[in-house]
Every structure is written in structure tokens, then in C-alpha cells.
Specification:
Length: 208
């Protein structure tokens, strides 16, 4: 019976370790990945925040929340960098949790949870077979199913959230591109009107 408790405790420890590691705040410049929100401390005393676009391990390219423009900074100019619990679109405008929740589905959460339960049940059954004489392996299978479901459901939630964020970013980027096209067309029309007026003025001056 003591072995049973020990095995169950080990399974619980694995799940707890996973959740604790998923929220680690350890971070270096080399670990900065595209789409991450970061706070950058420069050696000249300046600070900036924004979304990482690219990291080639010598320079960091990001969009600044202050200017909403692309910035490039060399590694040697960075004193330190921190993760931020903020979600940006590709112009470094914030995306709220309410907007994410409005778009987010639970498709991956349920799919991962069910798959995790199946995997966990099979693993628990395998672990419980040596203890057949002491306790039914179904107890291990049930425990494994619950832990597996929790483990994979958490990953599914993250995937659903990431999918929602990407969808919002794409929509905002499309709207921004459309707005730029409208502004360009408007500018062209204004130039045509100005040219038309100029020609009319020239014709009037000739008539006079």
C-alpha cells in the first residue's frame, strides 16, 4: 500500500511541476521569441516596451508601444529584458483579455483533455498492474485519467488562447491594411481634384 501512495504522489508531483514551470519568469535576450511582449532596458538608461518581431541572436527587432513603429536594437546595447503579461497586436496596440475571451473557443481544450484522459488512463493502468494483489489497477487508471486530462487540458487552453490572439492580430492587420488603402485612394482623388482645378484655372486664364 505504501508503494501505491508513493506512485500516486510522484504523478501529482509531475503535474505540479509542470504548472509551476509554465509560469517561470526566467528570461534572456536570446530567449526572446516573435510575438512576445517585452520590456527592454538599454545601457544608455532608456526603456521601451513592445512586441518582438524577430531575433537573429545579434539584434532584436520589435514594434514599440510608444511609437508603434519597428525598432532594431543590438544585443550589446541591451542591459536586460523582461517578459510582460500583456498581449499586443503587430502594431503594438494592446489586446484585452475580454477581447481574447470573446473570440476564444474551447475546441483544443476539450480535445486535449479527452486525449490526455485516454493517455493518462493507459499509463495509470500500466503503473497499477504490479500492485494487482493490493489494489485494483482501475484506481491507478482513474487517477491517471484525471491527471492526464488536467495536464493536457491546460495545454489545450493555451492553444485556444494563442489561436484567438492570432485571429485578432490578423483581423486588426487586415483592417489596418484596408484603412491604408482607403487613405491612399483618398489621397489620389485629392491629387486628381487638384490637377483638375489647376487645368480649369489655366483654361480660364487663356479665355481671359
Amino acid at each position: 500500500m505504501r508503494n501505491i501512495y508513493t506512485t500516486t504522489s510522484m504523478l501529482l508531483s509531475v503535474v505540479i511541476l509542470f504548472f509551476s514551470c509554465s509560469s517561470t519568469s526566467t528570461f534572456t535576450v536570446r530567449e526572446a521569441e516573435p510575438n512576445q511582449a517585452v520590456k527592454i532596458f538599454l545601457k544608455d538608461g532608456k526603456k521601451d516596451t513592445g512586441i518582438v518581431l524577430n531575433n537573429d541572436f545579434t539584434t532584436l527587432v520589435y514594434v514599440s508601444e510608444n511609437t508603434h513603429e519597428k525598432q532594431t536594437v543590438n544585443y550589446e546595447d541591451i542591459m536586460r529584458i523582461e517578459k510582460m503579461d500583456i498581449v499586443y497586436d503587430y502594431q503594438a496596440y494592446q489586446i484585452s483579455k475580454a477581447e481574447i475571451n470573446k473570440v476564444k473557443s474551447n475546441r483544443s481544450t476539450w480535445g486535449y483533455a479527452i486525449g490526455g484522459a485516454v493517455i493518462g488512463a493507459a499509463a495509470g493502468l500500466a503503473v497499477g498492474l504490479p500492485f494487482w494483489d493490493e489494489v485494483s489497477p482501475l484506481i491507478f487508471s482513474g487517477t491517471g485519467a484525471v491527471l492526464g486530462s488536467m495536464f493536457f487540458a491546460f495545454r489545450g487552453q493555451n492553444k485556444d488562447k494563442d489561436n484567438a490572439i492570432e485571429q485578432i492580430r490578423y483581423i486588426r492587420m487586415s483592417e489596418s491594411d484596408l484603412q491604408n488603402q482607403v487613405e491612399e485612394e483618398k489621397k489620389k482623388l485629392e491629387e486628381i481634384e487638384q490637377e483638375k482645378k489647376k487645368m480649369q484655372d489655366q483654361l480660364k486664364s487663356k479665355d481671359n
